[in-house]
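Ticket #4471: structure output looks truncated?

Reporter: J.K.
Steps to reproduce: submitted the chain below (264 residues) through the standard prediction queue, then opened the result file.
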Amino acid sequence: MGVYSRILVARGGAIGDFILTMPVFSALKQTYPTASIECLSPSGYGELAKSVGLVDACKNLDDRVWASFFVLNGDLDDETAKWISQFDLIVSFLYDPEETWVNNIRRTSSARFIQGCARPSDGGNQPASITLLSVLEEIGIREADPLPKITIDANGSDCYDLVVHPGSGSELKNWPIENWIELLRAWLDRNSGRLLILGGEAEEKKMTQLRATINSTRVSFALNRSLVSIASLLGNSRFFLGHDSGITHLAAAIGMPVLILWGP
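Returned output as attached by the reporter:
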């Protein structure tokens, strides 16, 4: 097993993809406790990993400086190339079928480069987190815990008895909004607890409908919050209900009891 002092993990995709990659960060942190582990990912993802101590720093994959790294023999940004050159191990889960990304990385870095599976659902019948972890076998890391686990300091956050997220990355996976309205009204009638409804950009219309039809002082709405903020809210609440989404993966990783609604 090699000794590495500065490690970069690059991960694109959706929120759920990132949550399922967290065991990779955990395994690297446990194996190389003195190494600096950094993250290159879409906006907000790395901040979540940093907030729970899995990475030491993060950069935003959505920044325009990275565009040239996905162009054949791209004109690479000098400062970004210098930053890349400081790593001695790079683990990438970016989709790179033409190897454009890796070839540009090799122009700037002599680091050991390991390519992981960008789409673990294509890797067979085993759980995605196991497929993602398997790439670390190349550096001698085996039998790491494949369950995403996030420990949140939720002190100061409001406590809710039920948190719901009525959306996901695909409407084909979602319950109709009418069903959500009926369910949440029934829950409020039969329970005295507090309800939090989460939503992102894709759920703005649904959130407007829910605000208009569910009128109770026991209901709060959280729209377009950061992942760190959402994690804090989840970490201090009791039960989560949602679809097959990244937020559902986040709630499960925090350790909440979770009920998933599959499809319409």
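Triage note (M.O.): checked the attachment and the full token line is present. The CA atoms of residues 20 and 196 lie 24 Å apart.
Status: closed, working as intended.
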